Amino acid sequence: MKNYQKKSAFLILFGLFLNISIIHSQTSNDVAIYNWFDKTIGKENLDIINGIPHTNPYRTTGDSHLYYIDQYELGTLNYEGQLYYNVKLKYDIYRDILVLNPFGESESIGINVITTKVGSFSIKDKNFVNIDKKDLAVPEFTAGYYEENKISPDFVFYIKHHKNQIKSINEGVLLYTFKENTSYFLDLKGKIYSIKSKNDIIKLFPDQKKQINGFYLMNRELRKSDENQFMRNLMKYISNSLSIQTK
After folding, report:
1. Residues 2-20: tens digit of each pLDDT
2. 212-246 as b/e: b if 16+ CB within 10 A
3. Is the pTM above the cut of 0.90?
4. CA distance 240 to 110
5. What value, to the nearest 5°, has the Cα angle with vertex 56 and ends 145 and 125?
6. Which keywords belong to this entry (predicted)?
7. What is the spatial distance between Cα 141 and Cα 134, in angstroms, rounded to a whole number?
8. How wide is the angle at C-alpha 94 spanned by C-alphas 103 and 102, nearest 5°?
């Protein structure tokens, strides 16, 4: 029996014994129970470490790196439908690989988590989902991990984090620089739209043109310093404006 099956069976018995109801929402009680169980069976034996070793063959310049954040962060992983809390994760956005630091190991050791078994993961209060479907109308919306911002059931904003590679040679040594290349998508009532400019947004929401232009004007500094947060805020602003209009 796989570890996650053992975990499910054990939690059911554990809940009956204490006369409590185990639910799958991330409450503090759930986190404590799952962590206690993982420790009891041995975190080194969990199914999530069955991937291949993570390697980084690129010698980079300055502070450049492959990752969303260049260090392991405690996060949550949904793997084969099972939730694992407080696991050390790092996201290689150049190769679209989720990396796990096995429990008790040096952070120089990483395992590439098997992508097809990942449903979602979260780090630094950001939720990432594994999308395996393609949209022929939006070919750039490819399979992979996307930051998901579910503003409402019919209004979901996706950020595809990616980096482009630039090669250079310094004193005969091949060096790499990785530059951010982020893409934005909106799932509006089940249809995917690519967002590349303000005009794309206005085309989707022509009745909100004045409000959108005003938002850009009032948030110029945020757009320069953190365009991803600017876009998150803009999508929430548009959704709220639409909600007000329909009341």
Report:
1. 444 444 444 443 443 444 3
2. beebeeeeeeeeeeeeeebbbebbebbbebbeeee
3. no
4. 41
5. 35
6. Signal
7. 7
8. 5
